[in-house]
Amino acid sequence: MTLLAREAMHASLQDPVLESIGFLNEIMSRYPGALSFAPGAPHPAPYTELNTARYIDRFVAHAASTSRTPDMAARLLYEYGPAQGLINDIVADALRRDLGIDADPDSLVITVGAQEAMLLVLRALIASPDDLLAVSDPCFVGITSAASLLGAGVQAVPEDADGLDVDALSEACRAARRSGRRIRACYVAPDYANPSGTRMAAERRLRLLELADEEDFLVLEDNAYGFTAPPGTELPALKSLDTGRRVVHIGTFAKVCFPGARVGYVVADQIVRASDGSAVTLAAELARLKTAVTVNTSPICQALIAGMLLEHGGSLTELSRTRSVLYRRNLAHLLQALDRETVGGLPDGVEWNRPEGGFFVRMRLPVPVDAQLLEISAAEHGVLWTPMAPFHPGGGGTHTLRLSCSYLGPERIDEGVRRLVAFLREYAMPGTATAVVGGVSQ
Ligand SMILES: Cc1ncc(COP(=O)(O)O)c(C=O)c1O
């Protein structure tokens, strides 16, 4: 039998982030009865209302009505299609109408989820070991995993309750320059970030764009959770404030439609000039790279998503309305349950934030939050959560966990919080967990 040594393969295979995701999956399968606040998965309830055939027909009718060769419209679904995408005009319309992002359809690429968009953008921008990707710390593991896959250097920049610390990013730019490197791009998820739930304040958004101009880097804006903002409290997307084409805007239909479609998009309206003087959009360049990755995004899945959008008047807000209500209900329910169940007290130093949108609540404990503690929580109290250290490329997060309630119903959230609070009362006190694990597992 052929044996391959992992150490002799690409370093990304040894990325601790992949290990921790593997461990979470493994522990969920070992404790199937445990109530899990771990996965940030979308709620399955809306799937029962999906009429996929109708959505596809809807798109085909639209394509026929706008095409010079209407009888060919249905055929589009079965061909490779253009690498940049089939539904760019519909998505561009929705972005203009709902987010104030004025993007030409040619400056979009429809990608296999937001994940492919991140990979393509990093591949295009990170040209040498001296090019660094700055990321908010903590940040979504999808971007750090993509950087690891490409061997791109990551510079962690702390965030506070108002989002990314722009002064720290400014200092990171100067430090990179002193060492002959440069911050090429900075990844942020300004609205209810995964995993921290943090939302970037309005004034920070402007400061970040100013700094991007001063220091000549691009901002990679990930807008996965913006749709969950309570109506009337929405803050402008970075891309809608972007007068200098500094922002590459990445979006996904995973949460507003369903993740199995694997449809996302990237707005990349920057101009790329070649040495012969010709100029194209960054989107066109990303599409050239895409032909070496996924060739195109499944036309059937694109049609499905576009049909869903058209069924909702072409509006992302309308499309996501029932889901955003559901997610806000869950989040409010989780926070209320935490308040209610902890009236009798908790060990000193247990605290959590109170986001108004998104899928996640971050909880700090006065004890190390690691695989050992998770094992105890699952085995003795039947409740799971996600340790946050793997989300911290800067090395922090050793005492925090992430709670996600996106895919649970209210009763499960209540039961999960009862179990969580019982666990915290027993083990969130310095010394307790190590003593027990020492006795149980050795
Ligand atoms: C911040 C963030 N971006 C993007 C995604 C989704 O990406 P995709 O469209 O690849 O499913 C997620 C999903 O967990 C996320 O949390």
Poorly predicted regions are 435-442
Global shape: globular
Percent of residues in beta strands? 15-25%
Q: Termini, distance in Å?
A: 34 Å
Structural class by sheet pairing and helices: alpha/beta
CATH architecture of the largest domain: 3-Layer(aba) Sandwich
Read across the widest sheet, the strand sequence of neighbours is 2-9-8-7-6-3-4-5
How much is the average pLDDT? Answer: 94
Tell me which oligomeric state these chains represent. single chain
| Percentage of residues assigned to helices | 40-55%
For the biggest sheet, the summary is:
8 strands, mixed
How do you describe this structure in short?
InterPro entries: Aminotransferase_I/II_large (IPR004839), Class-I_PLP-dep_aminotransf (IPR050859), PyrdxlP-dep_Trfase (IPR015424), PyrdxlP-dep_Trfase_major (IPR015421), PyrdxlP-dep_Trfase_small (IPR015422). The protein is an alpha/beta fold and 442 residues long.
Q: What do these coordinates show?
A:
This protein is of the alpha/beta class. It folds into 2 domains: 15-40 and 318-433, Aspartate Aminotransferase, domain 1 (Alpha-Beta Complex), CATH 3.90.1150; 53-314, Type I PLP-dependent aspartate aminotransferase-like (Major domain) (Aspartate Aminotransferase, domain 2, 3-Layer(aba) Sandwich), CATH 3.40.640. It is built from 13 helices and 16 strands. The protein has helices at 16-30, 52-66, 88-99, 113-125, 141-150, 166-178, 202-215, 282-290, 299-311, 316-341, 371-381, 410-427, 432-441; strands at residues 35-36, 108-111, 131-137, 153-160, 163-164, 182-188, 218-222, 247-252, 264-267, 271-273, 279-281, 351-352, 360-364, 383-384, 386-387, 400-404. The strands form 4 sheets. Strands 2-9-8-7-6-3-4-5 form an 8-stranded mixed β-sheet, with helices on both faces. The protein is globular. Residues 40, 113-115, 140, 142, 189, 194, 222, 224, 252, 254, 259, 264 line the site of pyridoxal-5'-phosphate. Residues 88-420 form the Aminotransferase class I/classII large domain.
